[in-house]
Structures are given as structure tokens and as C-alpha cells.
Amino acid sequence: AGPGTPVEILGFDKPPGAGEQGRVVENERQARHLAGLRGQRLRTEQLARQAKRGVSLEELFTRIEEGAVQELNIIVKADVQGSIEAVTGELAKIRHPEVSVNVIHTGIGGITESDVMLASASNATVVGFNVRPNAEARALAEREGVDLRTYRVIYQLTEDIQQALVGMLSPTRVEETLGEAEVRALFRASRIGVIAGCHVTNGLIRRSARIRVVREGTVVHETSIASLKRFKDDVREVQAGFECGILLEGFNDVKEGDVLEAFETREIERTDLDVAGNGGPPEPVESDESA
Fold first, then answer.
1. In the chain, what are the domains?
2. Mind spelling out the 3-state secondary structure of 37-106?
3. Rounded to the nearest 10 degrees, how much is the dihedral formed by the CA atoms of 95, 96, 102, 106?
4. I need a labelling partner for 151 at 20 to 30 A (CA). Which of 12, 176, 208, 247 fits?
């Protein structure tokens, strides 16, 4: 067969990648030996690429076991080997210290029932590029609760994956200072402990807030409010300029002159994923489709 002539070859588990070179040897033993050497070389190259990213396999596994990194498992199906390489190459650029993309399987051809079963067993999303699931695969995916997505534009695929990763990120905790109160008197009660007679100097003191006890510029304790009173009445909050009595939860070592700093923390959902090394989206082909 001359260059560019299609031929049929038996014995491949999967089609070779575009641009790969073939070798003709005398027997199967030599072929297995060469295949082993090539596999070792590919593994070495893969480890070298991972090393360039600044995270070793050991470090990544440790962080995953500690819960510091969450993985999004992906199965990639595409029309040709070149498409698989393009998709996995773009997915490899998506890096974040808290979440990672894990491509557990790739294959050429439409999305099949075996792909869905693998996704169900590994809690993965099946991504198809220029391919579609057959009717049986669609029905099985619906029964198994497997997410099937098909695309014809790579950057739309990567945008969806990035948004999925954003949804896996832990919320950002933001601290908001509410106000400060100066301790001006101490009242000891045998049953409940030391009550701090305070003057709210700025902002407000809220019953549900956390309290830092600041003494001569140094934080000596952090706790919550067990009781907040105005005269004899329990109140939810006290504004600046007013007096109040504060009983701190589990802390009686408060002193006159201490400053009680009230603050709250709230969680903000993350809406963006900072992606290192992403050189921008590839040229679009057509619009995407979702299964």
C-alpha cells in the first residue's frame, strides 16, 4: 500500500494515535518487547509533564486523601484520535489547588452503554466531542443518573468543565467586624461567672457574634456571647454609645480596659475558577449540544 492508502490491520486494542510510527518486526516476542519499551517511555514523559506543573503524584495523592483536593472524573469520547488529544490537552490546562480534572478513560466512537456503566461505577461525567450517545446509552444514563454531555466546540466544553469545578470549590469565608465595646466594670455572679459592664464605642455588639478579647493590643481569647443585657433585659444587639452587660462563653478572665471586638463570618459561594496556564480558547467550530 502506498502513502495515504487505507488498510485493515488486525490485533489493535484501540486505533493508534495520529502521527504515530509503525515498526515491522520478525515475531510477536520482538513486538511485545518494543511495546513495553514504548509504554515505559510514554509513562516517563507523562511524569515529566506532571513535574513541570509543580505538583508530584505523591503530593497530589496526599492532598486528595486529606480532602484538600476534590477530583472531577471525566470520560472522553471523540470522533478521531486527534480530537481526543485536543480535548485532553485543554483539560490538562485546567489546574487549581483545590480541585482537579481526572480523565479516567478515552475512546474513539459514539458513547455506548459500557461508557455509561464505567461512569456510574466511577462517579464520572461522560463528555463526547463530535459524537453522540446511542439510544441504549441515553436510557441507561437516565436510569443510572450519569451526566452525558456532547460538544462540537472545545472551548465550550472546557468552560462547562470549569464551571463544574467551581461548583466543587468550598465557599470563601469572609470576616466582617461589627463593632467594639470597652470593658469598664466587672460584676461577679457566683452561679454564672464574670459579667463585663461595657460601653459600645463603635458599630454594634450582636448577641450571635463572635468576640475577640483584646488586651493592650493583643488578642488573648476568642469566644461567643453567653448573655447580652441592657439593664435587666436580654437584647439581641446594642448600638454604639450605649451601655450593656456581656457574659462571655467559658471565659471569666476578662479585665477592665479590655476591648471586646465583635465579628461575624459568612460564606460566599465561589463564582470563578482561576486557571493557570490557559492560553485562551481554541477557534470555535460550531455550537455545542447537551445530551
1. 69-168 (3.40.50.10050), 172-268 (2.40.30.10)
2. HHHHHHHHHHHHHHHHCCCCHHHHHHHHHCCCCEEEEEEEEECCHHHHHHHHHHHHCCECCCEEEEEEEE
3. -30
4. 12
Give CA–CA dist 91/93, Å, rounded.
5
Task: Give the per-residue pLDDT at 15.
Answer: 66
CA distances from 51 to 54, 70, 85, 281 (A): 5, 20, 20, 24
Query: pLDDT at position 37, please?
Result: 73
pLDDT at 16: 66
Please answer whether residues 77 and 106 qualify as being in contact, where contact means their C-beta atoms are separated by less than 8 angstroms: yes
289 DSSP 8-state letter? B
Our CA angle for 38, 41, 47, nearest 5°, is 145
3-class DSSP string for 218-281: EEEEEEEEEEEEECCEECCEEECCCEEEEEECCCCCCCCCCEEEEEEEEEECCCCCCCCCCCCC
What is the C-alpha separation between 224 and 237, in angstroms, rounded? 14
